[in-house]
Design a protein that fits this description.
Largest interface: A-B, 53 and 53 residues
CATH topology of the largest domain in chain A: Methyltransferase, Cobalt-precorrin-4 Transmethylase, Domain 2
Number of domains of chain A: 2
Strand content of chain A: 15-25%
Number of strands of chain A: 12
CATH class of the largest domain in chain A: Alpha Beta
CATH architecture of the largest domain in chain A: 2-Layer Sandwich
Oligomer: homodimer
Radius of gyration of chain A: 20 Å
Structural class of chain A: alpha/beta
Chain lengths: 253, 253
């Protein structure tokens, strides 16, 4: 059997079901490359299940040819793929799931607290007020104008945009709020963003999380704990939303 | 102190942090009206904390004048407001939170597994492919054309739409997939929905959850367990999404 387990972002986020599945697994692949975890998760897992084979998985262990072995083992053993947050929110492990279903392996999904939930919930913004979500990557050969196009399109519809920031743990690269602000302002060909209110969100769900509201350029001047970081570009606010945004402005003075 | 605790939708979803907060509370308001819970949650809470005053809260206990008492008690006691899913996803308890912050009461938020996470994660669809989310309510004095307008607008942008269905537990009313299909097809003034592929989702995250893919009119003919139900109206699918939609089609034959 193959069990996908969402770990949330902290030991505090572990669910009863996640703990039960970690305890009864024969093999546990711990995804250490799609996001960061607040606590020493490997240690926690080894304590929960000293009997299991724990594989500290890199991308090469959970993509491509390696998936074959993982699925083969799932036919006779209880194999857990454990990842930060929720197992499928960013479709990271969809390919493993699809492969397993194709090959008639029994599959179970254990949901975890996801960043998307926390963002939609914690900020005091309505889930109905969010448009399409985007990820901002570092500009390489081409500039990611598609990101500002999505933000513009959402703004036209009076919808907020959750902007996830490039995170590549194996390359030790994690985009910070000031970097993201610089990139966005450079891409802002219509000038809609230079006086746009936004939220800077650092380490959401961690003990030292920090949330600030400011006009976008000024967000880059605030002090944040290290990444993971993200942004919300705000559309027009209703009165309750206004209250919360003012709260996030005051609380990071 | 005032602690908002998300319970998820099943005892299996309880997090370490939620259990800790339920155990150390003096007073626990259990929200029993915004959504449904798979397990007998009141019994579970009483077992976790026999010492606490447990209030099986109706809407009138958590809205309007009653909020004042709750906040006053939070100044001297450890008060928990526990709700299904995540505490703020549908902004249900935002007003209590805002009031507490205004009155300088110390506040803590304990996130829970939310329906939005599960929907964005379980279906094999990309979170980046979802547009604005909508709630379909029963047509009363006016017809909710705004709902189909959002679906049309999302489809034009090649984005899926998560359609939440009317749920009023205090009035024992919960819209089913067949009811929702009828309402949507009646509102479908451009005829975009009558051959549109969609997902019917019943009791997501429960042990007897059921997910079916079909063209919208045919979804109404499938057998689903009782609500909570919801729909996803699908835009163009990429190959991985196609695989999963075919899976949801086969699995509910």
């Amino acid at each position: 059997m193959l069990v996908f387990v969402g770990l949330g972002y902290s030991t505090r986020h572990l669910t009863m079901e996640a703990i039960e599945e970690l305890r009864s697994a024969d093999v546990i692949y711990v995804d250490t490359y799609t996001s960061m975890y607040e606590d020493p998760i490997i240690k926690v897992i080894l304590e929960l299940n000293p009997r299991a084979e724990v594989i500290v998985a890199r991308r090469s262990d959970l993509e491509g040819a390696a998936v074959n072995e993982l699925i083969e083992r799932s036919k006779t053993e209880r194999v857990v793929v454990a990842s930060p947050g929720d197992p499928f929110i960013a479709t990271t492990h969809d390919a493993i799931l699809a492969d397993a279903l194709r090959r008639d392996v029994k599959v179970k999904v254990v949901h975890g607290i996801s960043f998307i939930t926390m963002a939609f919930s914690r900020l005091g913004l309505q889930v109905y007020k969010f448009g399409k979500t985007v990820t901002l990557v570092y500009p390489h050969s081409s500039k990611p104008y598609s990101v500002v196009d999505v933000i513009y399109d959402n703004l036209k519809r009076n919808l907020h945009t959750l902007v996830l920031l490039d995170l590549d743990i194996e390359k030790s690269r994690a985009m910070s709020i000031p970097e993201a602000v610089d990139i966005l302002l450079e891409l802002d060909y219509l000038g809609f963003l230079k006086d746009r209110l936004a939220l800077g969100i650092a380490r959401l769900g961690w003990r030292d999380e920090k949330i600030c509201a400011e006009v976008l350029p000024n967000l880059a001047l605030k002090a944040f704990p290290p990444p993971p970081h993200s942004l919300v570009i705000l559309a027009r606010l209703d009165p309750v939303e206004e209250f919360f945004i003012e709260y996030w402005r005051q609380s990071c003075r």
